[in-house]
Amino acid sequence: MPASQTGTFRRVGYTGWSAFRFKDPTFPVWIGAAILLVFLMLLPLGAIFRASLWDDTGLTLNRYFEVFTNEQFLKAIWNTLIISTWVGVLAVMIGALLAFLVTRTDLPWKKPIRALVMASFVTPPFLGAFAWTLLAGPNAGALNKLYRAVTGSEEALFNIFTMPGLIFVMALYSFPFVFSMIANVCELISSDLEDAAEILGANKWRTAWTVTLPLAMPALIGGFILAFLQSLSLFGAPAILGLPAGLHTITTQIWALFQYPPRLDLAAAFSVPLLLATMALIAVQKKILGRKGYSTVGGKGGQKRLIHLGLGRVPVLLFVFGILSLSVFLPYWILLKAALSKAWAMPLTWDNFTLHNFSFAFFEYGDTQRAIYNTFKLGIVTATLGTLLATLIAYVTHRNLFRGARYLTFFALAPLVIPGIVLAVGLFIVYTRPPLVLYGTIWILFVAFLTKEMPIGFSQAESTFKSIHPELEDASRIIGANRLISLKDITAPLARSGLIAAWSFIFIGVIRELSAAILLFAPSSKVVSVVIFDLKEEGQVGVIAVLGTLMLAVSFLVILGVQWFAGRDVVATRE
Amino acid sequence: MKKVGLCFVMLAGAVMLASPVTAQDAALIQAARKEGKVVWHTSLALPSSTAIAHYFQNKYKGIEVEVHRNGSQRVLQRFMQEAAAGIKNADIVHTSDAGNFELLRDKGMLLKFTPQGVAAFPDGFKDKAGFYYGMRATLSVIAYNPKVISEKDAPKTWKDLLNPRWSGKMVTAHPGYSGIIMTHVLALVNAYGWDYFRDLAKNKLHIVQSANDPAGVVASGERPVGVNGSEYFYYKTLKQGNPIKIIYPKEGVPLVVSPVAIAKDAPHPNAAKLFTEFIFSKESQQLLADKEGLYTGHPEVTYPADKPKLKELKLLTADADELEKRNAEIKKRFTELFGA
Amino acid sequence: MANVSIRGLTKKFAEVAAVDDFHLEIGDGEFVSLLGPSGCGKTTTLRLLAGFLQPDGGEIRAGGEVISSQALLVPPERRQMSMIFQSYAVWPHMTVAQNVAYGLKFKKLTKQEIEKKVTKLLGVVHLAELKDRYSAELSGGQQQRVALARALVVEPQILLMDEPLSNLDANLREEMRFEIRRLHEEFKITTVYVTHDQAEAMATSDRIAVLDGGRLVQVGRPNEIFDRPATRFVAEFVGKANILTGRFGGDGLLQLGDGVKIRVAGGSECAPSERVTVCLRPHNISLVSGDAEARRLAEQNYNLFPGVIRRSIYFGDSVDYTMQLPSSGVLRVIAPPTQRYEPGQQIIAAAHPDTCVIVRDE
Q1: What is the CATH topology of the domain spanning C240-359?
Q2: What residues of chain A lie within 8 A of the CB of C65, using their CB?
Q3: Residue B11: inside a domain, yes or no?
Q4: Do B92 and B127 belong to one domain?
Q5: Do A482 and C2 touch (CB under 8 A)?
Q6: A29 touches chain C (CB under 8 A)
Q7: Omega before A470 cis (within 30°)?
Q8: B199 occurs within a structural domain
Q9: 8 A C-beta contact, residue A94 and residue A175
Q10: Angstrom distance (rounded) from CA C24 to CA C190
Q11: Helix crossing, A62-69 with A264-289: angle to 10°?
Q12: Which of A1, A14, A489, A491 to mutate to test the interface with C (most CBs of C within 10 A)?
């Protein structure tokens, strides 16, 4: 086409460059986000170290001495080690077995099974523990009653108020993490490797044992460590099941140290070893699994052929649903029953049916409305600001915006290392004295939740960014949009489903958080998890059941909303 | 004209005499309404404290009662924690541990206020210095589930509970949470020494926190015997049709008077005073006795026929000062003996 | 004036210089290609030009003003440049029209003005009927044209292109080469074009800058690069080349290893006994079989290489011969298909001295 038909461009000279002799004007945003992140992480940790090591006389190891020579404290540490080890083993066994069955065999109904695993994941462990007290209290527990009725025995089948009982319940709500981890790995193992074994004569089970298992071994160890760490930091379940049996764990012991007169310094000294142990385990896990956090099993995956179960389908299905009924069906059923009963231990006859628990919980008990409001407010604010911060930080680290930007990843993921209650100890020390007294307001909870949920938000945002080609953003920048505008117009819309997922993970994490909230709440800033815990201490079974049901309902609605909105299977894509 | 005027004056006077609200009260009510709410930290059982709040709110429309219920020791902890952080949230503190109030008063954290009519209360309900008064009283008793245990077999005394036949069948609440239990433990330690509890622990008790929790545990049959617990809550549970039988041991029953006081830095002082006046009024105290199974210090309150009169029982009391001094010791030793 | 001046440009990644002391002057409205193998630093240079990277040394000027240096970096959005990417980078959540219109948002134009410009450019790249489609519905070639329209509609001073045709199949690539050249002729925007494909560079560029190891090796018009390669590398990278080595005797002739002496362009000025490398293009060699023919060419000072045909591959429009020379060297000859020689045949290759070019041995 001749030039005359298209017209010529205005030839603008390169004048006025001198006006732009400065760095990228969006820079302060990134630096600001980075500084905020570092502050969030370092302040509480610093406070804990300081509180445990310094007193009026100066640097001292007295607190550590006191902690480690106290018989009760030592017993708590010992209990915690035993419990966490067993929980790790059980969680891996259940999680790995289920993951294998779901990914490598032709088991039917995989979608419902995954959904039920998701339901176990979403259930807060303390709520599960509470439900299990109704199911397996040695005398009044529904299951034990059934057992006695059927067998005529005097004894209980299973006393949940024991260490094995505690381990059992904690494992039931830890295994979903292991499941995801191992399912991801199993999906990567190429059938070629197994075919090779079969050609050489091994049957399908032997192959699973000798080929698949060793390949998955790093993931199994990683899963064990994950479950171990998770159980180290649980507070609600040990408090509900362990304390009645006279068992303290590190977390319940730290909490007890806050009773009047409080010994923050001892709590801090107790927290430090927990912190160090967690760090060490995470380091070990990283080493075993390599940088990606899951073992890269050879190749891109290749063809997967499923093991045919044949007639074995039925017993296997029964087994799988049996396990899932332990974590989902039975607890949810008993919660609903307790919510609707006058006397929870009695059968749900028409006589026993009542809506009083609901009306009391929602209309008479002032704490409920306040707590629901606080919980939602915190959930939404934390999820929104947390996603925003995580997105900015993930952007900074992914694009390596300034020297050393990659080290921010460490800070964003650091809270994984900090058990919730330890974080709370640190935040308590920092924010109950000037200059910034956040204690007593809802904002100390906000800081705690924001810090605690940062890793999940960050890793979700990071993997989302990795899936967006950087040139899409470059194209927008060169055409006139600065970094922030590009982030808003180009990256964010493309990252939409990933960011929605991040938002929902943070939201659900917040509404069920207990171990930090239990130390930091004030009467006006109570959240639902704390209300449930308080009610448990008073023994108000009906009201707890109502609130627990509410919590579960909300979590599920959010998950379903995300799946519908963002159109993705949230179980399938885990970090 | 004069006659009408005289009648008018007499009528007005009669009305004024008949009305229980004095000019002073009216001023208080108005000031309280201006403040709009009163924040009440209490260890009174949740259904009971909520009910009281509703009574008050119905009577004095426009003043909200914000109830924060927790165990006595938790209430104290929260209060101290907030004070240490400079937060002034609470108006009224009410627990079942008199020792708490000695501590708070000595630290200057309470407001000196004497509600009307309290002079007639027994000494055990009054602080000589005038900072706190007993709103309610209850007993710590033994209870059992008659569906599981026959009357013949049931334990009757504190010492009966040491019998190994009850191993695995008993529940206790915890002095680290409950003021009632704190008093209970101190009373029994004074009577029998710590050896009593050491022997009791051999029976592998199920540990709960609140003095109100054992009622549910016993009624559900989870543990058929409660070695302690608040009598009013056991009584209420029984009245709701649950299988509970209460034992008032003849060797002595710990009496727990639950004081209430106004915080020195209360953000709503007038509402707090009004609320305090309310809970010590005959109307309110009678409600506590009728609906909540509690005893009170009010001399004109009558009690249900099926509750024992306090005069008829051998009462074990604990001195508030001693409660305060031995608070930490009791928590520590109990925890050591029972594990948590 | 949208001229670009690159002086001493250096960029290091972990101690390794991706771009090393790079100098280049690009005139206003000129189309310059950066040509080289992967890892030669051409894309890094382009990204330095765009402002996505900051130099470790040297500077870049546009219109005489410094836009990149160690101390200063004008951000990409303020450089009045546009860029085309190998991955097309068409935004998948916007329609074609929205993609093209995006850059105009920052120019403070009215909606009507934007729409007018967008329509015009879509017509220029022949995509008017696809304006409401999304990138997922477009082919690679169509996406690249969207990228072109998007880049041109903002009337940039400088256009940067990063291997825009590498992801397209061969036929489309040829067509697009011409399209790109045509658009350049029409709009006359200063263009820097990165590619590893010498045919692309030759077809589109006013000048070609050949890069290797982060350094500029040679810059010049396509025919200069092709006919007068400066180094062995350029000779072998741009087009096919026979590389001969030898020494100069005092007689201005180059003596090859096997004693054969040849005349080379500019050889008479060379000092004796220098080891020298010579480039001779296969297309510039003719094959003669008869002695008479050979003698005639020798009189015209043609260089003659006797040898034996080792291999002959017929391509339809040419035949690719490999000749074995007595010195154990080989010579590659690409000759028209009019005469066919078979392996084993004795043959003489003839090349005019002007086509025997001295190159630096780098």
Answers
A1: OB fold (Dihydrolipoamide Acetyltransferase, E2P) (2.40.50)
A2: 14, 17-18
A3: no
A4: yes
A5: no
A6: no
A7: no
A8: yes
A9: yes
A10: 14
A11: 80
A12: A14
Q: Count CB neighbours of A422 within 10 A.
A: 29
The correct answer on CATH 1.10.3720.10 for the domain covering A24-54+355-575 is yes
Region for residue A301 given its phi and psi (left: phi exceeds 0; alpha: psi -120 to 50; beta: otherwise): left
Provide, as residue numbers in chain A, all residues whose Cβ is less than 8 Å from the Cβ of B223.
Answer: 139
| Interatomic CA distance for residues A405 and A408, integer angstroms | 6
Output the six-digit token pair for B107: 């630290």
- Taking 50 as the pLDDT cut, the residues of chain B under it are 14, 18-19
Chain A residues with beta carbon closer than 8 angstroms to that of C73 = 23-24
Q: What is the CATH number that goes with domain C4-231?
A: 3.40.50.300
Judge if B275 and B318 occupy the same domain. no
A239, A170 Cβ separation under 8 angstroms: no
- The continuous run of DSSP H or E covering B159 comes out as none
Q: How much of chain B is helix, strand and coil, in % rounded to 5?
A: 50, 15, 35
Q: Which chains touch A (3 or more CB pairs under 8 A)?
A: B, C
Model pLDDT for residues A135-153, shown as the tens digit of each residue: 998 888 888 888 888 888 7
Contact assignment for A477 to C76 by CB distance below 8 Å? yes
Residue of chain C whose Cα is closest to the Cα of A1: C186
Tell me the domain boundaries of chain A: 24-54+355-575
Kindly state whether residues B241 and B145 are assigned to the same domain. Answer: yes
How much of chain A, in percent, has pLDDT values that exceed 90? Answer: 25
Q: How far is CA B109 from the centre of its chain?
A: 20
Do residues B226 and B117 both lie within one domain?
no
Residues of each domain in chain C carrying CATH 3.40.50.300: 4-231
Domain around B175: 139-255+313-338
Nearest to C93 among A11, A475, A493 (CB): A493
Q: Which of B88, B82, B125 is nearest to B279 (CA)?
A: B125
Residue contact B336–A433, C-beta within 8 A:
no
Touching chains, B (3+ CB pairs < 8 A): A
> pLDDT tens for residues A281-334?
878 877 776 654 444 444 444 556 677 878 888 888 999 999 999 999 999 999
pTM: 0.79
- Domain check: are B231 and B265 in the same one? no
Write the CB contacts of B270 (distance below 8 Å, at least 6 apart in sequence): B28, B31, B32, B34, B35
Handedness of CA B298, B300, B306, B311 (dihedral sign): positive
On the question of pLDDT at C129 being above 60, the answer is yes
* CB contacts, 8 Å: A524 with chain B: 66, 89
Query: Identity (one letter) of the amino acid at C59?
Result: E
Same domain, B107 and B45: yes
Same domain as B323, residue B193: yes
Name the residue facing B176 among A244, A259, A539 (closest C-beta): A259
Range list of H helices, A163-212: 163-188, 191-199, 204-207
Spatial CA neighbour of A546 closest among A131, A120, A133: A131
Which residues share a beta bridge with C190? C158
B292 & B191 share domain: no
Mutation target vs A (from C59, C66, C78; most A CBs, 10 A cutoff): C78
Q: How many domains in chain B? A: 2
Burial class (CB in 10 A: 0-12, 13-18, 19+), C119: middle
